[in-house]
Amino acid sequence: MPTLLSKIASAKSRRQSGFTLIELMVTVAIVGVLAAVSYPAYESHLRKGKRAQAQAYLMDLAQREQQYLTDNRAYALDGGGTTAAVALSAPVPGDVAKSYTISTAARAGTTPSFLVTATAVGAQAADGNLSIDETGAKTPSGSW
């Protein structure tokens, strides 16, 4: 006749190890909450990174326009509002081209002037447009 101690020992040895359905569901719920909280921050981080790339490209393009003005006494603009000789030496980087449309336009006035604009497209549109002119004025000022 088995003793009480042997019954307890045999019951413990027959138990299966693993996770219960409730433990698994709690884990899935915790991971879901963490993902819901962190994903918007991740998207914001990506948007800021793309904006920084566009700002760097606009600054480079404005500097190239200034150099072109020094050499040729005019800015490198064609009738379509895009850069001519300057753009050939500074192609739009792939990451910037996916998120922004870059255009350069001459501004009205007696002195040579330009405005380089990065128009946000797609998911980046929530970030807004960026621009810089011949004086180095950057708009909107809160995005630079």
Describe the structure.
With 144 residues, this protein is an alpha+beta fold. The chain has one domain. The chain is 51% helix and 14% strand. It contains 4 helices and 4 strands; from the N terminus they run ααααββββ. Strands 1-2-3-4 form a 4-stranded antiparallel β-sheet. The longest helix has 52 residues. About 3% of the residues have low confidence.
List the helices and strands and how they pair.
Blueprint: H1 4-14, H2 21-72, H3 85-89, H4 94-99, E1 100-106, E2 114-120, E3 130-133, E4 138-139
Antiparallel strand pairs: 1-2, 2-3, 3-4
Identify the notable features of this structure and list them briefly:
rod-shaped; 14% strand; 4-stranded antiparallel β-sheet
Helix content, binned percent: 40-55%
- End-to-end Cα distance, whole Å, is 85 Å
What integer value in Å does the Rg equal? 30 Å
Q: Globular, elongated, flat, extended or rod-shaped: what is the shape?
A: rod-shaped
In percent, how much strand structure appears in the residues? 5-15%
Average per-residue pLDDT, rounded, comes to 82
Which strands sit side by side, in order, in the main sheet? 1-2-3-4
Structural class, from helix and strand content?
alpha+beta
Q: Give the SSE order as H and E letters.
A: HHHHEEEE
Total helical elements: 4
Number of domains: 1
The profile of the biggest β sheet is: 4 strands, antiparallel
Q: Regions with pLDDT < 50 over 5+ consecutive residues?
A: 78-82
**What is the number of strand segments?**
4
